[in-house]
Design brief:
heterodimer; A: 414 residues; 5-stranded antiparallel beta sheet; 29% helix; globular; B: mainly alpha; 75% helix; elongated
Chain lengths: 414, 594
């Protein structure tokens, strides 16, 4: 649980800096980086949920002001009385707003191979553009217990089922050959005969990390394949084209949905040639809607005072976000577990775009789609230049997740 | 097989295709029991077992076949594969060993086992089997293709290259195959670093093998080692008596990759060694082009800021090379193009308008139907402007615009006409032309047209003669004609007489720009710095601050002052189009990301 805090009157600074996150903001994405940078320097940042698009309030400091200017982030200086007025407005029972204090910059890890793959990773792009420092971890690090060193872990276009992304049409491409070779070598290094066996242990290790309080964020195929691999712990769902032996004929009956974070009752796709992992993914929108001008999803609104976590995760300056296609584009509603909170969905289509849940002491957040600013990112396409999308609502959702672990935890009542 | 068996077998096959393995297995077991010697029954039953992971049954089936002693190498390999899939690795390795032991003196035994191992992606073991086979058979050339591929797959790129070299040794015509094979891995880290030394060694040892050298040249090119590649292609050219053909191909590739020096060297070598080669004229032109490109890259100038002629070695070399082309290849189709290029150098680099005019007139008069003629005509128009002969310039640009009507050169001619109207004080005509032009925003010249339109639109008056604008136009023309003292005097006069006119900011900015161009750095800096104090609301204010910061940074080497001035721009003009550039400069100056 997280606690909304008011600034005690004695702590109100003579002057503060407000970083509005509404339409007035010149660079929403770099604003997150400034908040992160301030936290790194020991400055407490107040996140004003639902106030002007989820603004940040910081104590005035010349260096911060200079950095805001250099990074091109719009800000407003507030006098003491103005700050008090803003806080009282945010804390007012009449408004669906609240103040969450961010205290410590989370240690961020991105689960990704060192090998360069011919597609971009929206989170790496967002972190790089926002200038949020992170470290890259992969299977060896996970197996060696490195996850304990991080507060926040991100998974992007990963295939935890051990089917190499089901990119079989690219099997003769150097990057595919190398990816498969490295994955197989890692599996054998850790004493597994098959990549799927290694990936299963990796998913279980990540699940333990969440159980122990880690924050997990996943996008694209990193979402559903995580749960598919977790559910398949007692069976083989990988076709012979990927691991040399056929699937278990009783695979469906052996799936254990109690092992998953978000999804249940789904059916893995056993066709090696089909670029689809399961029926969790609804696939691209129907042809009449497969158009960036028509395809969109809506972000739900939550009670800022009673539901601070989903509120933090959905902070945005718009309520409607342009859709984008990925290997996993949207989650089929019927396969989402009942205890999972739906944060955003495609209206009228029973297709969920963004969801969140708790697991043990930690949380997971799944965001479907590949690149919020590239409607249909194909293999080999150049990465998106975020300097051209400074105000991207789709990318904001990613960066909400980066800051959310910095929020002050509520003290347990005794 | 009787007809009943055939029907049942076909039904079993359809079950297999539909994934109904249990039904298929039932049928196939009956068929196999009735006719164990029928190979297809055995194969399909084994396939059925494998599909439902009944590995023990599949292995038992293979054992039964082994008892018949049909083909022990193949069967042991198959048994081993099934054992491996079952998870019994030790038994699998033993079976593969048995497969080899069944016929250790046959190359095919090793090949069958290697294929079986590859099927379960045990590449390292597959490598050792083939190496073992090579030793046993005492044949260094065995399994070259297979081993090369396996080595590449297992990251042993040096060993892979050894195998490819072996292939080429036996058959030089395999070079294309080798390249295509290597091409699949070439982008992987370490491939080139590991491969190149191998090929370097073999070229040293066997200097007369062309395929080795071609492979090495290709690897160097892939690794952007153009100088080394040049040496290789130079050698091939000599040894194979290619008369510069190979060198010319290399030079063009190097030029495309902006490797100007190796490209120049290659062109020069062609000219020196093979002056009569078919590629010699293009080599001569290429040589001149490389010098010119290099000069542009180095921002070379033939005059310093005070107007004194200084050495411009690359431009001079380029001009000289073009001259040689004209002397040696007077009938070549590229002759007018070369002439035009020379004229442009004379005009824009050496500021020798008389020679430039003569050169460009030659293009126009002698080669009027060539593609270079229109460009030459345009440049003649520019010369007329620089000489102040605006009527002549107008005539040239009008004629060109009417002739072409569409395209980039037509737009450029139109803009020059708008400028001439401007210089002559015909502001309505200039405005009309620039308005027409900015409707077509797809052209490069549209921005200039918009800027001119805004200048005209905002700065007419106060008198009916538009005196300030006339003074400004005269100064602009003087600056273009490089008569800087006249330009500065005109601008000072304008500012003195019309200091509060809307045009004052443009005049001050033009004055500061002119000062910078003639090397009056301190005065220029001062002019740019005071600009924002005098004209705080001018649309040029951010540009003046940016330019001042640029002078601090680039000409005075004062990084702190530069950063301070860039910051001032961000503070006072956060929405400026130059803001992101200013941010980048500050970050660069403070060492971000280093």
């Amino acid at each position: 649980m997280l606690l909304g805090l008011s600034r005690p009157a004695t702590q109100v600074h003579a002057q503060d800096i407000l970083i509005p996150m509404d339409a007035r903001q010149s660079d929403h994405l770099k604003a997150y980086g400034i908040a992160f940078w301030s936290l790194q320097r020991g400055v407490t940042v107040d996140w004003l949920l639902n106030y002007r698009g989820g603004s940040f309030l910081l104590p005035f400091d010349n260096e911060i002001e200079q950095e805001l200017r250099i990074r091109g982030v719009y800000s407003e200086k507030l006098g003491g009385a103005q700050t008090a007025s803003v806080i009282s407005e945010v804390e007012s029972e009449a408004n669906n707003t609240s103040l969450v204090r961010l205290e410590k910059a989370p240690r961020v890890a991105v689960y990704a191979p060192q090998q360069t793959l011919p597609w971009d990773d929206a989170v790496l792009l967002a972190l790089n553009y926002a200038e949020v420092p992170y470290e890259m971890v992969y299977d060896d690090d996970v197996m060696e217990g490195e996850l304990a060193n991080y507060d926040w872990l991100h998974l992007h276009h990963e295939d935890f089922t051990g089917q190499f992304g089901k990119f079989i049409q690219y099997r003769s491409m150097p990057w595919y050959i190398e990816q498969q070779r490295q994955a197989e070598a890692a599996a054998r290094r850790h004493g597994f005969r098959k990549v799927s066996e290694l990936k299963l242990v990796v998913t279980q290790t990540i699940r333990d990390y969440v159980t122990n309080g880690g924050f997990l964020f996943a996008m694209c195929s990193g979402t559903d394949t995580f749960d598919i691999a977790s559910a398949a712990l007692n069976t083989d769902i990988v076709p012979a084209e990927y691991d040399g032996d056929p699937i278990d004929p009783d695979a469906l009956s052996k799936l254990d949905y109690s092992q998953t974070f978000a999804f249940h009752n789904f059916r893995p796709n056993f066709n090696a040639q089909q670029y689809e992992h399961s029926d969790i993914d609804t696939g691209p929108p129907p042809p009449q809607l497969r158009n960036p001008a028509l395809d969109y999803f809506t972000i739900f609104e939550f009670s800022a005072k009673w539901d601070p976590v989903p509120t933090m995760l959905t902070q945005n300056h718009v309520a409607t976000v342009r859709g984008f296609i990925g290997q996993t584009t949207n989650f089929e509603k019927q396969f989402i577990k009942p205890n999972v909170v739906i944060l955003a969905e495609a209206p009228g289509r029973d297709e969920v775009r963004y969801l969140h849940g708790s697991y043990g002491q930690g949380t997971f957040t799944f965001y479907a789609g590949h690149d919020p600013e590239d409607y249909q990112h194909f293999v080999g396409d150049p990465p998106t230049d975020l300097a051209l999308h400074k105000n991207s609502p789709g990318y904001r959702l990613i960066l909400n997740n980066v800051l959310f672990p910095a929020a002050k935890k509520k003290k347990q009542k005794t | 097989m009787d007809s009943t068996q055939v029907a049942r077998f076909q039904l079993a096959e359809s079950y297999l295709r539909a994934g109904q393995f249990d039904r298929a297995i039932g049928l196939l077991e009956d068929l196999y029991e009735a006719s164990p010697a029928t190979h297809v029954f055995y194969e399909k039953l084994k396939e059925g077992y494998e599909n439902v992971k009944m590995y023990d049954e599949a292995i038992a089936l293979v054992d039964q076949r082994l008892a018949l002693d049909a083909n022990p190498v193949l069967l042991f390999s198959e048994k081993a594969r099934l054992q491996f899939l079952k998870g019994d690795e030790q038994a699998a390795y033993a079976s593969w060993d048995e497969a080899i032991a069944a016929a250790p003196n046959h190359a095919n035994s090793y090949r069958v086992v290697f294929q079986s191992l590859s099927r379960v992606r045990l590449f390292e073991r597959a490598v050792s089997i083939l190496e073992q086979g090579r030793e046993k058979l005492n044949s260094k050339d065995q399994f070259q293709m297979d081993l090369a591929y396996l080595y590449s797959l297992t990251n042993a790129h040096d060993k892979a290259m050894q195998e490819y070299v072996g292939l080429l040794k036996n058959n030089e015509r395999q070079l294309s195959f080798v390249r295509s094979r290597l091409g699949r891995f070439i982008d992987q880290e370490g491939v080139l670093d590991k491969s190149i030394p191998i090929v370097e060694d073999v070229v040293r040892e066997t200097p007369l093998n062309r395929s080795y050298r071609e492979l090495l040249g290709w690897l160097y090119m892939e690794n952007a080692q153009y100088s080394e590649a040049l040496n290789v292609y130079r050698a091939i050219d000599r040894l194979e008596q290619e008369n510069g053909g190979i060198l010319f191909s290399f030079a063009k590739q190097a030029a495309d990759a902006a490797a100007y020096e190796p490209a120049s060297a290659a062109f020069a070598e062609i000219l020196e060694r093979y002056p009569d080669a078919p590629s010699a004229p293009e080599a001569q032109m290429g040589l001149a082009e490389m010098h010119e490109q290099r000069a542009q890259e180095l921002l070379e100038r033939a005059f310093d800021e005070s107007g004194t002629r200084i050495s411009a070695p690359n431009y001079e070399a380029s001009f000289a090379a073009y001259q040689v082309f004209l002397q040696q290849y007077p009938t070549h189709p590229y002759y007018p193009e070369v002439l035009k290029r020379m004229g442009r150098l004379q005009q824009d680099v050496f500021f020798n308008l008389g020679d430039a005019e003569a050169t460009l007139l030659e293009v126009l008069n002698e080669f009027g139907s060539s593609s270079a003629a229109n460009d030459a005509d345009f440049d003649l128009g520019r010369i007329a402007v620089m000489r102040g002969d605006l009527d002549k310039a107008r005539l040239i640009f009008t004629r060109l615009e009417e002739k072409l009507r569409i395209g980039e050169l037509a737009e450029k001619a139109r803009f020059q006409l708008a400028l001439i109207h401007f210089y002559e004080g015909e502001f309505d005509a200039s405005l009309t032309l620039s308005q027409v032009m900015n409707e077509n925003t797809s052209t490069d010249i549209a921005n200039d047209a918009i800027e001119l339109k805004v200048l005209l639109f905002e700065n007419k008056g106060p008198d009916s003669l538009n005196t300030p604008l006339n003074l400004y136009a005269t100064a602009s023309l003087a600056k273009r004609q490089r008569t800087y003292d006249i330009a500065l005097a005109g601008l000072d006069d304008l500012l003195l007489r019309f200091g509060s006119h809307a045009l004052a900011d443009d005049a001050r900015f033009l004055r500061a720009t002119t000062l910078r161009e003639i090397g009056e750095t301190e005065s220029a800096l001062q002019a740019f710095l005071e600009f924002h104090l005098i004209h705080p609301t001018s649309f040029l204010v951010d540009r003046s601050l940016f330019t001042a910061a640029e002078i601090y940074e680039q000409q005075l080497g004062d990084d702190d002052k530069a950063a301070e001035t860039y910051s001032k721009l961000l503070l006072e003009h956060p929405t400026s189009l130059l803001a992101s550039q200013a941010r980048d400069r500050i970050r660069m100056l403070r060492g971000d990301g280093t």
